């Protein structure tokens, strides 16, 4: 009973204010405060201080023009981006449809008729016929449902939130595609570096095998030395096909990311280049900055706004609807006399759902639950963003520490290998010592290359975690249709 009285009071209040402005039922959305989302004041991982850099085109910080060109191509031709653009266009048209509810629906019809008087027939044929009169008619109708309780405006608010969320989702796809290009480019260069290290070790081991063969022929050592070197060489050789496979897979992925066939970029990447290395530190700002800088977080926040507005839409459906209908019509025997007599009508209709077996209230409860879910998704997106930054900072710091240690290990292992080769040639050490020294050098060189790749990947991960790859201050992206091979949208002729 209390709920019914409250509903009547709400309706009466809105009816009284109708000449001034319509009411909008449902909660008015406000962005949740960072404290309610679990955003801390600072990161727990050590983070560089300083002004946050411009991360719009963060991949250029690696200083590799070929990488820059591939990323730019992907941002233009990637099919995931094209699909996200189509979803954005769809959301924009849904907003236009909702906005149409603020305007009346107008329709018009016209007709023409003539009456023929048949005076006689001869052998079944008309012998004397004449036109007795003609009639021209025009009519127009207009219907307008007043948005008394703001259901239409809440629907527009929800559609606008969904449209904005789609725009941020497009930005997130663009950022993710750029990050995937960089990731696979690093994988390709790391595979080349690993293959080069293995081939360099093979050349040294070929020399060792030759030396062991000479010593066997001279009777200084048994054939065991030669077999041990040959076995180690074979084990090293098995690494080359694995690295080559990794390179091909990364190159194929880059081709697909740029909207081309898998092997399209393989020839362009076949020439070896160093693993790209970016800056050693990137200022990350405050955790609260992620609420604005991460497009996926922005998309989740806009989805929450849309879900909140849909509560108002469902509430408005429980209240009466006032519809105004009007129409005019005229008819005459000639076009010139159509304006002689014009008749019109206007009436208002007040409609209220009396019984729907609880359907509308169930919709309201469902929309409230959807808003709660959207808030949970928003908070989860925020916490995930914070986790991404923390993990990236840790990964970067770890990779840099490993790189420093592997640099020392490579230098020491290289000196040890040189001494072992010299001593083996002079007969001062056995083949086992030489093999162990060569294996240690190969392991240290491979570890250093992997540490460099891990550092580059951690830096890429940090850029993406900070929302790099889009400009939060730029206007919404233009929604261009997905093109087919002939430059036309799919099914354009259907």
Helix content: 55-70%
**Order of adjacent strands in the largest pleated sheet:** 1-2-3-4
How far is it from the N-terminal to the C-terminal residue, by CA?
Answer: 56 Å
Sequence of secondary-structure elements? HHHEEHHHHHHEEHH
- Give the biggest sheet: 4 strands, antiparallel
Structural class of the helices, strands and pairings?
alpha+beta
Write out the CATH superfamily name of one domain. Answer: Outer membrane efflux proteins (OEP)
CATH topology of one domain: Outer membrane efflux proteins (OEP)
Query: Roughly what fraction of the amino acids lie in strands?
Result: 5-15%
Which CATH top level class of one domain fits?
Answer: Mainly Alpha
In DSSP terms, counting alpha (H) and pi (I) runs of 4 or more, how many helices?
Answer: 11
The CATH architecture classification of one domain is: Up-down Bundle
List the helices and strands and how they pair.
Layout: H1 2-17, H2 65-77, H3 79-99, E1 105-122, E2 125-146, H4 151-217, H5 223-237, H6 239-257, H7 266-269, H8 290-293, H9 295-316, E3 321-332, E4 343-351, H10 359-425, H11 431-465
Antiparallel strand pairs: 1-2, 2-3, 3-4
Helix pairs in contact: 2-4, 3-4, 4-5, 4-6, 4-9, 4-11, 5-11, 9-10, 10-11
